[in-house]
Specification:
Oligomer: single chain
Bound molecules: uridine-5'-diphosphate
Strand order of the largest sheet: 3-2-1-4-5-6-11
Number of helices: 11
Helix content: 25-40%
CATH superfamily of one domain: NAD(P)-binding Rossmann-like Domain
Largest sheet: 7 strands, parallel
Distance between the termini: 33 Å
CATH architecture of one domain: 3-Layer(aba) Sandwich
CATH class of one domain: Alpha Beta
Radius of gyration: 19 Å
């Protein structure tokens, strides 16, 4: 049983991981600024787990907040953490193109400040939310961790820089234990339908968009191109059930807390690709009706296919995905149908 700090723990991946970690018996402090998130998510995590979470509303870019957090005191569990799981960050590609300064401030400077606070407090174990976006237009599929890092937008650049900082840190002292987890496409929801993805505004990503079409909030899905060199001409991605992803964090944490190795860099994906049309058909099965769609132009910056080679995570963590696309769609629909307006 460990004492853990989760930054950004009220978000989509953070809340599902919080549930898995609580169920594994860990004590959690969640730091979140609730910028794009709703505190109801964590209330439901508490409801599902029957356990308590210490919640701190604050911002990584506020050193005073971090210092207070690591010194303990008002936040209840004494401030000494065995490890930090760092989800907090911004992730909208289009927004990052318009506001690169913001992305570098939150994703890189926020990470640097967190690491400085950890080092000062003697906490040297970190699980970091990285992304397959680092691979840009991949040169090979499935993509191994050794593939070239070549991000193509400010969001990807900020994640690549944070990854580099973590590698530099791991090289600077043998104290550090760091896992850089490169997520592929996290989707789905907890099977209870109580927690799930709740994007602000119009969703950028396929899965929440299809969910909103299914629940009647959007008139139709726009499919960005049907002339890609793929099985049916639509883009192919590696969709990973958010509960599989959450379990991947728990497995990485266990390995870190057991002491070795010092720097883990792992793809978290299923190793299987699905096209936009396959996701749409899967969702139609789950919700029991046909969903309207229209083919439009390709979206700038999209790759045809990104699929993980997840064999390293399997070898080092003993982890692999257990839930398939049908489960993803069933659970995603259970969440969306029960919460048409997300947590609002
Ligand atoms: N996509 C689409 N319509 C949408 C959103 C996404 O056709 O409204 C396609 C997109 O072109 C890609 C796939 O769905 O082929 C997954 O896109 P998403 O943005 O979810 O993930 P990413 O491209 O960042 O991996």
């Amino acid at each position: 049983m460990a004492r853990l700090l989760l930054t950004g723990g009220a978000g989509f991946i953070g809340s599902h991981t919080a549930l898995v970690l609580l169920q594994a018996g860990h004590h959690l402090v969640v730091l979140d600024d609730f910028r794009n998130r709703n505190p109801v998510a964590l209330k439901r995590v508490k409801q599902l787990s029957g356990k308590q979470i210490t919640l701190v509303a604050g911002n990584l870019n506020d050193p005073a907040c971090l210092e207070r957090l690591f010194r303990g005191g008002p936040y209840g569990i004494g401030g000494s953490f065995d490890a930090v799981i760092h989800f907090a960050g911004l992730k909208a590609v289009g927004e990052s193109v318009k506001h690169p300064l913001l992305y570098w401030q939150v994703n890189l400077e926020g990470t640097r400040l967190l690491l400085a606070a950890m080092a000062a407090a003697g906490c040297f174990s970190l699980v970091f939310s990285s992304s397959a976006t680092l691979y840009g237009m991949p040169n090979q599929v499935p993509i191994p961790e050794s593939a070239q890092i070549q991000p193509i937008n400010p969001y990807g650049h900020s994640k690549a820089a944070a990854e580099q900082l973590l590698a530099d840190l791991a090289g600077s002292s043998s104290c550090w234990r760091i896992a850089r987890l490169r997520y592929f496409n996290p989707v789905g929801a907890h099977p209870s339908g109580l927690i799930g993805e709740d994007p602000a505004g119009i969703p950028n990503n396929l899965f929440p968009f299809v969910s909103q079409v299914a629940v009647g909030k959007r008139p139709e899905l726009l499919i960005f191109g049907d002339d890609w060199p793929t099985i049916d001409g639509t883009g192919v991605r590696d969709y990973i059930h958010v509960m599989d992803l959450a379990e991947g964090h728990a497995a990485a944490l266990e390995v870190l807390l057991a002491g070795a190795p010092q720097l883990l860099t792992l793809n978290l994906g299923s190793g299987e690709g699905h096209s936009v049309l396959q996701v749409l058909r899967g969702f139609e099965q789950a919700c029991g009706r046909e969903l309207p769609y229209r083919i439009v132009d390709r979206r700038p910056g999209d790759a045809a296919i990104t699929v993980a080679d997840p064999s390293l995570a399997k070898a080092l963590l003993g982890w692999r995905t257990k839930r398939n696309l049908a489960q993803i769609c069933t659970d995603g629909w259970a969440w969306q149908a029960a919460n048409p307006n997300g947590y609002r």
